[in-house]
Amino acid sequence: MVLCVDDKGGIQALDRTQPILPMRPGQVERRTHDYVRNGITDLFAALNLATGEVIHQLRPQHRAEEFKKFLVAIDRAVPEGFDAHVVLDNSSIHKTPAINKWLLRHPRFVFHFTPTSSSWMNLVERWFAELTRRLLQRSAHRSVNDLTKNLRAWIATWNENPRPFVWQKTADEILDSLAGYLQRISDAGH
Q1: pLDDT tier at 20 (50, 70, 90 boundaries)?
Q2: What are the pLDDT digits (tens) for 115-166?
Q3: What range defines the domain where residue 58 resides?
Q4: How much of the chain, in percent, has pLDDT values that exceed 90?
Q5: What pTM did the predictor assign?
Q6: Residue 29 above 70 pLDDT?
Q7: Which of 20, 21, 25, 44 is buried most deeply by CB count within 10 Å?
Q8: How far is the CA of 12 from the CAs of 9, 128, 139, 165, in angstroms?
Q9: Residue 155: which CATH number?
Q10: How far apart are CA 63 and CA 65, in angstroms?
Q11: What Å distances lie between residue 108 and 72, 74, 118, 149, CA to CA?
Q12: What letter would DSSP give residue 134?
């Protein structure tokens, strides 16, 4: 099983200073530019690459200790007999001695680190973009409890009809595009 894993840290429970005015015919949604901060939460997520289903945990912080607890949750969720190939970034919380010790005791887990500055390669980042666009950008939360309740509900709705993300370009098309970009920026100095 391939799982794309990361955390979305510091999700703020923001509330507008005035109520959001909904769209009406001929008028866009309106909201104030200022807001009140009501605390934060961190979301750990594991996107099943084949099904689009998401395993998640909400935590008040995102340290190695919380990441290890999330690995335990993933271990419980992955059926026996399956290896868990985990795609993740090079964050320091993913490489602590405690995490390495946990991995030694759980040999079915194999970590695959994305190259530095290549978060786009981890498809859970695409899922985070959906979460942001569909829930977080247009929401207001008066408390962290309100925010976590809405996050759990949104994720539960997602998991009722999960959709895997599918690359639209082939690897060759992506590499050609990258080669063209690198050529343009190397020629820019001449």
Answers
A1: low
A2: 888 887 899 999 999 999 998 887 778 888 999 999 999 999 999 999 998 8
A3: 2-187
A4: 56
A5: 0.81
A6: no
A7: 44
A8: 9, 14, 11, 26
A9: 3.30.420.10
A10: 5
A11: 13, 12, 25, 32
A12: I
The structure tokens listed for 164 are 């895997």
Mean pLDDT across the chain, nearest whole number?
88
Distance in angstroms (rounded) separating the CA atoms of residues 137 and 114? 27
Mean pLDDT is lowest, of 20-34, 80-94, 136-150, for: 20-34
Which tokens go with 43? 């979301």
The total domain count for the chain is 1
- Which tokens sit at 110? 């194999």
Q: Is 10 helix (H, G, I), strand (E, B) or coil?
A: strand
39's tokens? 């605390």
- Scanning the structure block, which residue is given the tokens 């996107």? 47
Q: What pLDDT, on the 0 to 100 scale, is given for residue 87?
A: 96
Sequence-ordered list of residues with C-beta below 8 angstroms from that of 13, at least 6 positions apart, any chain? 37, 38, 39, 40, 41, 141, 142, 143, 144, 146, 147
